[in-house]
Amino acid sequence: MVPLAEQIPNCVVGHLPGHGVPSLSETSLDAWGKAFAVAVATFFGARPILLVGESLGALVSLTAARFQLPTIGAVVAIDPPLSANPWPLEVADLRPELRSMFGHG
Fold first, then answer.
1. Number of structural domains the chain divides into
2. Average pLDDT for residues 25-38, to the nearest whole number?
3. Angle at 19 between CA 17 and CA 25, to 5 degrees
4. What range does the domain containing 89 cover?
5. Does some domain include residue 42?
6. How many helices (H) and strands (E) in the chain?
């Protein structure tokens, strides 16, 4: 998304908590969506915006839109990982696997 975003005027690229910015104490889609909605409201104020997200970023954008900020005019969700059954973000369960793959973490 970054190469595309660099070609669009007035485009800001957000990063998920723990992915280039400090982590949140809670790692859930709702927590990420709320944090993103707050960041959008703080950064853009009353300016109208369009959220674009790819994969997990698409889910975060859709979740942020649920907070009904009046400035969010639309959401473009590119390839969101949708399922009939929501999947929990179980980071603690992934740590042993990641340690074995990368030798640290």
1. 1
2. 82
3. 30
4. 24-102
5. yes
6. 4, 2
